[in-house]
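## tool: complex_structure
## caller: assistant
## args:
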Amino acid sequence: MPKSVTATSKPPLIDGPEIDGSSKGSSDPGKASQKPAPDISGIVEEIDTFRNLRYGWDGDQALPISPAAIESAKRFIRTAIDAIKEDFRSWHRPTPCADPDGGVELYWEETNRWLELLFRPDDPDRILVVRGEAASKPTKDEASPAEALLLVRWVLDRE
Amino acid sequence: MPEPPHETNENYVYRVITPSNWDRAKGRPKPTAFKQSQGRALSVFSADRQTPRGVLQHQIDTWQERLISDNPSERDAVARNLSEFGDTAEKLLENGFHIVRLPLGEFTDRDFEVTAPEANGHQDARGDFEMHKRTLAILSEVLSPEECLA
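## result:
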């Protein structure tokens, strides 16, 4: 069961065991520089297409997607890639989703872990986090962008 | 001997999935397909009382009813949807709509409140969408176009 994340608590792996090169990629700077660049093709562009979603885009009464949420999600993606590119062997592309309340959600689904980050229209830098591990019950919390970044590392890690 | 539940429609519901809520890479609904705006109820249809084609037709009928709404934003939205996606079940499917089927128990087991089916099979589901929408998306059985139009 994943720990709860709050402004004062740290998510798993921050204080967790060291992860060796077989699961996390080499820490050797020379080897790190040979790794291919993370694949972010299309993510930012896909998030930008959410600007075209007008009222009722879900066939019902979904709200238009907030420009602030779009910018916040794009900024987060760029920061995340910058932050983890030296640490992880591979970057798995999240699925961007338009939220019917006008936010943007980024969704990762890995073998045993999954993570949803919702950038809301009214406070896009206070991120709603829902995540889970294997068959355990999901948890829901809020996180700052810095805390959410740690959760991206958590979901991408291969213990 | 009764048929196994997965071969009957008893206690199953249908949900219509719009193109914006479809994950093409995974071939299933995005989690956000199981969330309604502004805390409203999620619409599902009893598979016992409605067909997949009927669910698509209900979507079209709802848009057409809202064409005379007092709310201009709503009128514009449904006119745009009818123009973009069409006004028949066949056109909706051609333009990216899907129908999925789920056991009703997947909602109630997660403490969703689900209203009794109306005459047309419509049911409202209320619960913690944020917490469970991803699971509901994964559990969705995607119907083929042939199943949708039968």
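## assistant note: Residues 5 and 51 of chain B are 17 Å apart (CA to CA). Helices of chain B lie at 52-66, 72-85, 89-94, 105-108, 129-139, 145-149. Handing back to user.
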